[in-house]
C-alpha cells in the first residue's frame, strides 16, 4: 500500500515538473519518475491477485484481531511476479494503443510496435498462469455458519485440494467463456494494432482486461483473501461483507456517483480526442 501511495504521489509531480526547466537531464529524471510511478502500481496490483491464489499468511485471534505472519519479500513470490508482469503487459498495451490514437509519425509507430509485443507477451503470460493455477492447491469452503447467524472466519471449515481453483469452471462449463474472452481480447488487440486499427485495439484490450479479472474472480469465488497459515480463517464474500445498512448506503452513493464518474471520464476522452501535433504543442502555453 505504501508503494502505491508513493507512486500516486510521484506521478502528478512528474507531469507538473517535467518541463519546468529547459534541461535534458531534468526532463530525463522526471521521465524515469513517470515510468516507475506508472509501472509499480500495475505490478503491485497483479502481484496482489497472484498472492490471493497462493494464500496470504495471516490468522485471527479469538476477538477477530488479525495478525500477518509473513514478510514483504514473501509477497513477491514467482507466481505473484508472473501476475504482476501480466498486469503490466496489459497496461502497456492499453497505453500503446492510446498513443496510437493520439499521435502520428515516429511516436505512432513506436506505440504500434510496443502494442504488438505487449499483447503477445500478455497472451503467453496468461497461458502460463492458467497452467500454473491448474497445478496449484486451491481452497474449498467445506462448511460455514448457517444462514441467519453471524458470519465469522472462526466458524468455518476450509480444505486444500489440488486443482481446486478450477472447480467453479468445472461446475459451470459456460464460465470458460471468461478466459476465452481474455485470450480473444489480447489476440484481436494484437491483430487490430498490426492493422493500424487503434480504436478497435483499445476496445479489444478493454475486453481482455474484463476477461482476465473475471477469470481470477470466478476462480477465487467465494474467497476474498485465503489464509495460507490458517485456511479455516480465510475471508470469503460472506464473512468479510459489511452490514446490510452499510451496503444500502454504499448502493445509494454508487447510484449517484458512478454515473457522474462515467460522465466526466467520457468528457475527458472527448476533449482529448484527435491527434496531437507538434505545432499544437509548441503553440499551447499550457502544454507540458
User: How many domains comprise the coordinates?
Assistant: 2
Query: Roughly how many Å is the radius of gyration?
Result: 22 Å
Strand residue content: 5-15%
Strand line-up across the major sheet: 1-2
Count of helical stretches = 9
Overall pLDDT confidence: 91
Number of strands: 6
- Shape, per Cα inertia axes: globular
- What structural category do the secondary elements indicate? mainly alpha
Low-confidence runs (pLDDT<50, min 5 residues)? none
Could you describe the largest sheet, including whether it forms a barrel?
2 strands, antiparallel
Determine the fraction of residues in helical runs and give it as a percent range. Answer: 55-70%
The string of secondary-structure elements, in order, is HHEEHHEEHHHEEHH
**C-alpha termini separation:** 29 Å
Amino acid at each position: 500500500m505504501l508503494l502505491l501511495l508513493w507512486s500516486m504521489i510521484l506521478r502528478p509531480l512528474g507531469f507538473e515538473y517535467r518541463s519546468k526547466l529547459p534541461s535534458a537531464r531534468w526532463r530525463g529524471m522526471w521521465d524515469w519518475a513517470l515510468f516507475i510511478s506508472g509501472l509499480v502500481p500495475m505490478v503491485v496490483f497483479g502481484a496482489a491477485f497472484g498472492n490471493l491464489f497462493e494464500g496470504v499468511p495471516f490468522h485471527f485471534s479469538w476477538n477477530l484481531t488479525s495478525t500477518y505472519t509473513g514478510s514483504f519479500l514473501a509477497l513477491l513470490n514467482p507466481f505473484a511476479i508472473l501476475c504482476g508482469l501480466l498486469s503490466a503487459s496489459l497496461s502497456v498495451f492499453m497505453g500503446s494503443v492510446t498513443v496510437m490514437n493520439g499521435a502520428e509519425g515516429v511516436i505512432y509507430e513506436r506505440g504500434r510496435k510496443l502494442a504488438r509485443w505487449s499483447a503477445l507477451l500478455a497472451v503467453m503470460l496468461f497461458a502460463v498462469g492458467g497452467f500454473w493455477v491448474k497445478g496449484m492447491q486451491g481452497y474449498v469452503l467445506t462448511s460455514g455458519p448457517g444462514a441467519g447467524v453471524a458470519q465469522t472466519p472462526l466458524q468455518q471449515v476450509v480444505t486444500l485440494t489440488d486443482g481446486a481453483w478450477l472447480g467453479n469452471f468445472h461446475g459451470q462449463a459456460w464460465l470458460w467463456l471468461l478466459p476465452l474472452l481474455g485470450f480473444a481480447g489480447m489476440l484481436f488487440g494484437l491483430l487490430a494494432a498490426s492493422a493500424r486499427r487503434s480504436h478497435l485495439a483499445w476496445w479489444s484490450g478493454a475486453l481482455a482486461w474484463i476477461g482476465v479479472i473475471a477469470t481470477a474472480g470466478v476462480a477465487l469465488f467465494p474467497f476474498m483473501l485465503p489464509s495460507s497459515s490458517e485456511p479455516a480463517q480465510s475471508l470469503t464474500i460472506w464473512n468479510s461483507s459489511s452490514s446490510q445498512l452499510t451496503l444500502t448506503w454504499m448502493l445509494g452513493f454508487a447510484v449517484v456517483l458512478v454515473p457522474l464518474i462515467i460522465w466526466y471520464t467520457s468528457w475527458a476522452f472527448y476533449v482529448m480526442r484527435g491527434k496531437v501535433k507538434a505545432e499544437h504543442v509548441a503553440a499551447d502555453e499550457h502544454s507540458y
